[in-house]
Amino acid sequence: MVYMFLGTGFEETEAVAPLDLLRRAGVEVKTVGLNGKVITGSHGIPITADLEIGEISLQDLEMVILPGGLGGVASIRGCKVALDLIRYTWNSGAYVAAICAGPTVLADLGITEGKNATCYPSCTGGMGSAKIYEESAVRDGRVITGASAGCAVPFGLKLIEALKGEAEAMRIASQIVIR
Fold it and tell me: pLDDT (tens digit, 9 = 90+) per residue, 132-169?
């Protein structure tokens, strides 16, 4: 199971684009509301989450995804249960993924220490010892990071590649006619 954490003020494109791509690839993804069931993004778009944070099952956990958006990232940082679940995911050997300002949460938890990563350009100072690349999306083992809303599709394809393989990521890229 893949869980995407949505806190008030999350960046809508960074959530919806990867979510759509993963579901096209047949990945079971559940959106998780940190502040209730209906979460409003940074541009005023409300999204109804599949679950609330207390409803997560740790059985068959494959990945946790953190969209960016300064408000959404602040919501994640302010939710002890979410932080504990991110730590658990990492410690259990599953993937952790974050985009835009989201990778700074992974850095706070020590997950990106010494890893190759990317993030929103103004957030690089919060990435600790991670080696930052100016790429759309970067994978270093079980850590997958994306740079920004404009990189949400390459980030989503990188998530598919990790979970379902390169051929499936290429199939989805072809389906959506990415150039």
Answer: 999 999 999 999 999 999 999 999 999 999 999 999 99
Closest CA to 89 of 129, 58, 113: 58
Burial degree of 128 (CB within 10 A; 0-12, 13-18, 19+): middle
Tabulate helix, strand, coil % of the chain (nearest 5): 40, 20, 35
What are the pLDDT digits (tens) for 88-102? Answer: 999 999 999 999 999
Query: Taking the CA of residue 151 as centre, how many other CA atoms within 13 Å lie in the half-sphere pointing to its CB?
Result: 23
* Angle, CA of 71, 25 and 46, to the nearest 5°: 30
Q: Which helix (H) or strand (E) holds 154?
A: helix 152-164
At residue 12, the 3 state secondary structure works out as helix
For residue 45, CA distances in Å to 16, 52, 135 come to 11, 18, 27
Instruction: With beta carbons less than 8 A apart as the criterion, state whether 100 and 123 touch.
Output: yes
Q: How confident is the model at residue 179 (pLDDT cuts 50, 70, 90)?
A: confident
List residues bridging with 75 in a β-sheet.
Answer: none
**Checking phi first, is residue 101 left (phi over 0); if not, alpha (psi -120 to 50) or beta?**
alpha
Mind telling me the catalytic residues? 100
